Structures are given as structure tokens and as C-alpha cells.
Amino acid sequence: MEKALAKQPDVFDTFRFAVNDLKGIHPELSVLMTEAQEQLRPRRAIPYGWHALWADVMRLDRMAAEDLLGCELPVQAMTYGIGLTDDLEVLLAQLGEQRHVAEPLAAIPEVNRDLS
Hints:
Blueprint: H1 2-7, E1 14-18, H2 27-40, E2 44-48, H3 50-58, H4 62-69, H5 86-101
Parallel strand pairs: 1-2
């Protein structure tokens, strides 16, 4: 940080600190980042955890992701579909029958009357 600010003081407005702990930022690191934030004002010091990294990567298009990773992504165009096969047709018919005979206001039977 100090070297970057010494060489190019007007270039940086935000410093990101990589954090790879799945539980979050360790309390000691949090204190250090707060101290850094105080020294950097009006610049910002922010943590950059795996959630932020994942969100940034997911915003990339395929070519940018491949360039970042340095390899080709094994992606193939595929189409999935479900036809009205006999099983699905029977299931839909059963659900339709249940909908017509359902009594939503009927009393719910007691299952465990004696809990002693």
C-alpha cells in the first residue's frame, strides 16, 4: 500500500484485501483494516472475500472468464426438455383430480393426542 501510494498517489482510491476465510474476517484483521482505513482517508480499504470474487467472476462473459483462468471452459450448448410421457401424464392427471376433490377448510386430524 505504502509503495503504491508513494509511486502513484493519485491513481488509487480503493485498496482491496483478499480474505479467504469462509467464516469471515478475523477480528485481528478487522482491526488492521480499520487502522489502514484511517490512514488512507479519503481512500477506502475493503475486504475482498470469496463471495465478492464469485460475484465478480459470474459477471464475466465466457471469453473474459477463459482469459482470466488461462484455459478453455468446457461448455457445450445443450437443450433439455421433458415430454408428456406416460408417467408424467399420469402424475398430472392425479394432481388434477386431487385439486378438484381437496377440502382446504376440512379439519386437520390430531396425530399425537397423548404426549405423556
